Amino acid sequence: MRHKMFIGRTILVQNGKVEEAFRQLNRVLGIEGIFDIYRRNRYFERPTLKRRRVNYEICRAIYDEDMARRLKLTLRTNRADPWLGSH
Questions:
Q1: Are 51 and 64 part of one and the same domain?
Q2: How many whole angstroms separate alpha carbon 12 and alpha carbon 14?
Q3: Can you give the residue range of the structural domain that contains 18?
Q4: What is the pLDDT of residue 63?
Q5: Burial class (CB within 10 angstroms; exposed 0-12, middle 13-18, buried 19+) of 64
Q6: Are 78 and 84 in contact (CB under 8 A)?
Q7: Over the stretch 39-87, which tens digit does the pLDDT of each residue have?
Q8: Does an H or E element contain 83, and which?
């Protein structure tokens, strides 16, 4: 990850809505990947499988970034002149 994750999280319970605050906390922890880290660390992960997983995550991040860049380039709405040559 590009930034360090904070261990502690604070979610405010408003008007006694504990279930809503719990859902919000789960959403925050899911987005940051803390649940994934927890699930991975429950059992021992062999070093070869860990290397494969890390390499896959790196390749997937590069692919996703490249595809996002390509989509941004090819979408006509993102160009300065969306209809080239139609003047």
A1: yes
A2: 6
A3: 7-43
A4: 97
A5: exposed
A6: no
A7: 888 999 999 999 999 999 999 999 999 999 988 887 766 566 666 666 5
A8: none
DSSP assignment of 43-70: S---HHHHHHHHHHHHHHHHHHHHHHHH
39 shares its domain with 50? no
* Confidence at residue 11, expressed as pLDDT on a 0 to 100 scale: 83
- Which of 62, 1, 74 has the alpha carbon at shortest distance from 33? 1
Q: Which whole number is the average pLDDT over 14-24?
A: 90
13 and 38 fall within a common domain = yes
Q: Looking at the 3D structure of the chain, how many domains does it have?
A: 2
Do 51 and 61 lie in one domain? The reply is yes
The answer to whether residue 61 sits within a structural domain is yes
